[in-house]
3-keto-steroid reductase (Glutinoglossum americanum), 432 residues
Amino acid sequence: MRVVTTYVLVTGANSGLGFTTCCRLIDEFLDTRPGHESITLILTTRDSRKGDSTVSRLQKRADKLPKSKRQDGTTRVSYKSEIVALDSLLSVKRLSKKLLAELPKLDVVILNAGCGGWTGVDYWMATQQSMKGFVQSVTWPAFKLANIGVVTKPQLPNTSTQGTTNTALGEVFCINVFGHYLLSHNLAPLLSKAHHPSGNRGRIIWLSSIETEAVIDAFSIDDIQGLASPTPYEISKRLGDVLALTSSLPATKPWVDSFLLAPKSVPTPSGEEGIPTTESKPGMYVTHPGICSTDILPVHWILNLFKLLTFYIARWLGSPWHTIDAYKGACAPVWVALSPQAQLDSIEAKEGPGKWGSSTDIWGNERVRRTEVGGWGWGGIVGEEVQRGGRISGAKALTREAREEFEVLGRECWRRMEGLREEWEERLDGLD
Ligand SMILES: NC(=O)c1ccc[n+]([C@@H]2O[C@H](COP(=O)([O-])OP(=O)(O)OC[C@H]3O[C@@H](n4cnc5c(N)ncnc54)[C@H](OP(=O)(O)O)[C@@H]3O)[C@@H](O)[C@H]2O)c1
């Protein structure tokens, strides 16, 4: 029988959710796919030391799999370690070029790498917020502190001809959204070649956050980089939600099509261009891991223990979103990555495109759960059933007006992101 290989790229694979996503991809792939199928994980990290250590940790872990799976793990799983710094568009361009030249196709891209941009915690505000509502305060915290207006290093090498165009981008925006956006655009020709006997199409999967619900009113279309905002992280994740959830609407089609067009700046080896057909068009999905204990918000180890305790208390008090363990947090992105296309399509046809979250019950048993998004509800369907639990206080059932505004917002976000992409591609033209 012909070997079928699934190629999955995971950014930020060396730590936290990136690493557990790789572990879970391997486990679930070996559990669910037949023996003639294999998986190649393309792991991106910021340097080769981190990349080598990630591959070696994954291999050691595979050696400890139950005997029945160990043999499978060594023959059916392979790794390709790559380097990218998402705050550098030139680094994104270099990786794109390399992958376009080396890979035959790409089935899934999991846009996991991320940066919080936080500088600390306002403990006084944290105490006040938790006294008003403990579970709400540890699910949608309003006490994380971030500097306003932090930008990346200049994107272009300083040459006299580029002088005034050598501007920078919002740092959190560039790492969490724009670097990934450009990478996905550049890799669209490989994603369009994704093919699987079961009809799976290419998938671009954003890693969002439950916390976006706290900033829906603070999100401004005139500041999509969050440069004027004290919550640039949450703004960046809200942008990812809006882009993904509106990506299949007719209103965004012109920009989504141009996004999925083979890139001019990074020519494909065969030089092909053109909008993918419906059968080959990659889908865009948004997921989130719930709330996990990782290093994304670095705190002293004693405070870390305290944080962990508050997470468990929140879960025992009924929070579905405190997945805590990053392996459990990886359940939603891995489910979206490996589910049969027919299953995803039929759910979306019935319930609308949704934000897929990792959640647990009080005992810590994980499952994938749709998540409410301000202005979109659970699936963008006015009159849909309002689900109980796991909602931010003050959440409202979806109205026709809110749904229409969300669509307008989506179109505007897509238009501006495509504008920004074209602007930067021009600036990067001829640079390697
Ligand atoms: N933890 C949670 O509860 C939670 C909740 C919601 C969403 N998320 C999302 O989950 C994703 C993973 O977060 P995590 O919690 O696993 O945090 P983490 O352990 O800090 O991992 C972040 C990853 O992103 C990489 N990264 C950071 N800046 C980068 C850059 N400029 N270029 C390339 N890679 C970069 C890091 O690489 P280095 O190791 O080299 O820094 C690391 O691999 C993020 O998108 C985050 O927003 C997490």
Notes: Confidence is low (pLDDT under 50) at residues 160-165. Residues 84-428 form a domain with the Rossmann fold fold (CATH 3.40.50). The first strand starts at residue 4 and ends at 11. Residues 12, 14-18, 46, 50, 84-87, 112-115, 175, 207, 209, 288-289, 291-292, 294-296 surround NAP (CB under 6 Å).
